[in-house]
Design a protein that fits this description.
The chain contains twelve helices and 20 strands. The chain has two domains: 158 residues, Beta Barrel (Lyase, Ornithine Decarboxylase, Chain A, domain 1), CATH 2.40.37; 171 residues, Alpha-Beta Barrel (TIM Barrel). With 422 residues, it is an alpha/beta fold. α5 packs across α6 and α8 runs parallel beside α9. The longest helix has 20 residues. The strands form three sheets. Strands 4, 13, 14, 15, 16, 17, 18, 19 and 20 form a nine-stranded mixed β-sheet that branches. The protein is globular and about 70 Å long.
Length: 422
């Protein structure tokens, strides 16, 4: 469920008419619903009740401080993959004790930052990283909690580029390597070995591969305990899909939680999860305006002021986003369009042959399910401004990231002395 709907022919986010935001803030612009973010967090967390779990929102899905603060006030933790994401989570009010640090390419400086911050857990993905972390911890006089990320050779996800659990993926280590690494960490005086972690992909619509991966993790934990090695935590990652409107709905959080609780029934271990898309995806839309209609043989091209620099998912993942006009169509029959942006790339095509209500220059549209991996993946390609972000609560809204202008871009650059004009 989300809080975007038509009222009297106008598209709303909660109690705010989206056309008002577009006219005031300009387009393109991302708009997020506080009520949807909060509801999705509650639905996921409560699905496991009465078992207490750590729900660490995947910051990579949406790193806006206001979004993170909204979730932090609900009690959410943060799953992070860089020192920058850790800092964002901390500044948004997420306590360090609820932050997980993941990723295959953590630098020594980043590891030292995480150790110094006192994060809940660092998910280690290689023997080299384990050695580096041990050295950092010794230098800082700390003993960070760690988990070993397992690659269970179980693939899943909505696209090959977001499938992370197969044996040839860059993430994690094999089962045998993970067991050996965990035992090594457990014996290391500078590390506190706490658990195992797994994350097999994103936009998963079938519980079977998740259940298989979780079963592997339980078996490994039982094996370690059988050998007298303590293990307290299992981090089950994220990946649960969201509905993109053109395909069957993925499993619900309740169905997902029932499977998890069945797999770990009778097993005394704390559980953590890293949902991102499931919480933020349907909590955001991207608003755009029709620049012009290009008539072509076959079907017309609808040119928008939003481009692949604003929403890159269709270009790199062939991702589908439902497109809604902000003013509800009346009786006119729909038409088929190719919908494109202004970027100088053929790949700047959002969709081809999409049946939409008839649209004209100046009309406003919304890309739905754009709250995850939308603004956070945006760029300034073609020297375009980063779109602003707006957060809605009830009948109020606030610009939570202003539009990033050309002057903002140029302020980061300088011309060498030998190129200065004389």
């Amino acid at each position: 469920m989300n809080h975007f709907d038509y009222r009297d022919g106008e598209f709303y986010c909660e109690g705010v008419r989206l056309a008002d935001i577009a006219e005031t803030v300009g387009t393109p612009v991302y708009v997020y619903s506080s009520a949807t973010l909060e509801r999705h967090y509650d639905v996921f967390k409560n699905a496991f009740a009465p078992r207490e779990v750590l729900v660490a929102f995947a910051v990579k899905a949406n790193a806006n401080l206001a979004v993170l603060a909204t979730l932090a006030r609900k009690g959410a933790g943060a799953d992070t993959v860089s020192a920058g994401e850790i800092e964002r989570a901390l500044r948004a009010g997420v306590p360090a004790s609820r932050i997980i640090f993941s990723g295959v390419g953590k630098t020594e400086d980043e590891l030292a930052f995480a150790v110094g911050a006192g994060v809940h857990q660092i998910n280690v993905e290689s023997i080299a990283e384990l050695e580096t972390l041990s050295r950092c911890a010794a230098a800082l006089g700390a003993k960070p909690a760690i988990a070993i990320r397992v690659n269970p050779d179980v693939g899943a996800g909505g696209h090959e580029k977001i499938s992370t659990g197969k044996g040839d993926a860059k993430f994690g280590v094999s089962i045998d390597q993970a067991l050996a690494l965990y035992r090594r960490a457990h014996a290391d005086p500078h590390l506190a070995a706490k658990g195992l972690a797994v994350h097999i992909g994103s936009q998963i619509k079938d519980l079977a591969p998740l259940e298989a991966a979780f079963g592997v993790l339980r078996g490994m934990a039982e094996r370690l305990r059988g050998d007298g090695v303590s293990i307290e935590r299992l981090d089950l990652g994220g990946g649960l899909g969201v509905p993109y409107f053109h395909e069957p709905d993925p499993p619900s959080p309740a169905e997902y939680a029932a499977m998890v609780l069945r797999v770990f029934d009778g097993f005394d271990v704390s559980l953590a999860f890293e949902p991102g898309r499931m919480i933020a995806g349907n909590a955001g839309v991207l608003l755009a305006r029709v620049i012009r209609l290009q008539e072509r043989p076959g079907r017309p091209i609808l040119v928008l002021d939003a481009g692949m620099n604003d929403l890159i998912r269709p270009a790199i993942y062939d991702a589908y986003h439902d497109i809604k006009p902000l003013k509800q169509a009346q009786s006119a029959p729909p038409k088929a369009y190719d919908v494109v942006g202004p970027i100088c790339e053929t790949g700047d095509t959002f969709t081809r042959n999409r049946s939409l209500p008839e649209l004209r220059p100046g009309d406003l549209v919304a890309f739905l399910t754009a709250g995850a991996y939308g603004a956070v993946m945006a760029s300034t390609y073609n020297a375009r401004a980063l779109a602003p972000e707006v957060l809605v609560r009830g009948d109020r809204y606030e610009i939570v990231r202003r539009r990033w202008t050309l002057e903002d871009q140029l302020a980061l650059e300088r011309t060498p002395d030998w190129l200065e004009r004389t």
